[in-house]
């Protein structure tokens, strides 16, 4: 039997019809998971071809900027491979029950690894540029500029492929926002807007963008050298690029690391929205945990103290307007008597 694409995750309507006690699925992949995986492989091919051309041309024409850009592309090709393999693994193991909350966060792990690679790239470029600044070598400017322009074109095409285009998410007919059965778990298939972006895609995009930056700086340095005969702008531009790339790496490490540690950004509005929806004069939330399950998917665990008995479905309905919630566990306990 040939292995086809994985079936779509169960939506709320299907879950509502499931028999009591039936296992729920935990498929929390991003809405554009397949698209991003395919485009990552295309960009790997483009990057690898241009990498070989730039390294060879840089050594042939004596341009440190081209050599740096070529080796920069080599490490980015490796990082892009990490991203593509992460997409594939997450897709193939999305229903593997060894992963308690699915494989949605695998992209964040890959993004964190890519950020480390990006930091190493910055160190490599900075070190090589310092060496070349100390001991300049002759450069064949015209040939080097031509190769750098070609590299920039490849980088821009790759960045276009990896851009995170906006999506409008919705469900087909028969998919309700929240199931109304009396089980204390809810598994929806919603996609968030502000938080929960695809860190894996962002990491791949930053790698390509770093390549484009290096190409732009190389072209600027080579143009100055060809006009005035200067050799120092070439390694100086390499240093400038290394600093910018290091800053991008630090931001990506913070972002991916925060997701891996279940750290919601301080400006995240989802916890406050949950409290606003649930708490009233009859009930209050005594314990709340919210974390990211995958791109556009969040989980929440609520402990609610209620003055009168109420089923979990009562509070799930109150959360139906929050599309970022894909997995909700609700515990309701009687509130302690006041003054008692």
Automatic annotation (TrEMBL):
Residues in Cation efflux protein transmembrane domain copies: 41-261
GO molecular function, one term: zinc ion transmembrane transporter activity
Any single GO BP term: intracellular zinc ion homeostasis
Pfam families: Cation_efflux
Gene3D superfamilies recorded: Cation efflux protein transmembrane domain
Keyword Metal-binding on entry: no
Organism superkingdom: Bacteria
GO cellular component, one term: membrane
Basic and acidic residues bias (residue ranges): 173-186
Residue intervals passing through the bilayer: 41-61, 73-89, 109-127, 139-162, 204-230
Membrane topology: Multi-pass membrane protein
Main location: membrane
Keywords linked to the UniProt accession: Ion transport, Membrane, Transmembrane, Transmembrane helix, Transport
Region Disordered, annotated ranges: 169-196
Record flagged with keyword rRNA processing: no
Protein name: Cation transporter
Source organism (scientific name): Roseicella frigidaeris
């Amino acid at each position: 039997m040939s292995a086809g694409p994985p079936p779509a995750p169960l939506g709320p309507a299907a879950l509502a019809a499931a028999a009591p006690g039936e296992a729920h699925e935990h498929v929390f992949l991003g809405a554009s998971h397949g698209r991003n995986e395919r485009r990552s492989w295309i960009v790997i091919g483009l990057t690898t071809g241009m990498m070989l051309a730039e390294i060879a041309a840089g050594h042939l024409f004596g341009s440190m900027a081209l050599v740096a850009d070529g080796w920069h592309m080599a490490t980015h090709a490796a990082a892009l491979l990490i991203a593509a393999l992460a997409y594939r693994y997450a897709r193939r193991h999305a229903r593997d029950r060894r992963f308690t909350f699915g494989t949605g966060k695998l992209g964040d792990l890959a993004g964190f690894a890519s950020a480390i690679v990006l930091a190493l790239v910055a160190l490599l470029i900075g070190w090589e540029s310092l060496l070349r600044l100390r001991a300049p070598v002759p450069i064949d400017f015209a040939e080097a500029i031509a190769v750098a322009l070609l590299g920039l074109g490849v980088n821009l095409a790759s960045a276009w492929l990896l851009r995170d285009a906006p999506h409008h998410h919705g469900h087909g007919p028969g998919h309700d926002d929240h199931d109304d059965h009396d089980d204390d778990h809810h598994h929806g298939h919603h996609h968030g807007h502000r938080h929960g972006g695809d860190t894996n895609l962002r990491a791949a995009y930053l790698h390509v963008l770093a390549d484009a930056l290096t190409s732009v700086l190389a072209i600027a340095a080579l143009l100055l050298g060809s006009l005035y005969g200067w050799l120092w702008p070439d390694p100086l531009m390499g240093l400038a690029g290394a600093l910018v790339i290091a800053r991008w790496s630090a931001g990506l490490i913070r972002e991916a690391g925060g997701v891996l540690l279940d750290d919601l950004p301080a400006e995240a509005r989802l916890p406050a929205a949950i409290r606003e929806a649930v708490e009233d004069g009859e009930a209050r939330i005594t314990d709340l945990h919210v974390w990211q399950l995958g791109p556009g998917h969040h989980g929440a665990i609520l402990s609610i103290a209620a003055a009168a008995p109420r089923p979990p479905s009562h509070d799930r309905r109150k959360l139906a307007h929050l599309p970022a919630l894909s997995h909700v566990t609700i515990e309701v306990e009687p509130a302690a008597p006041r003054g008692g």
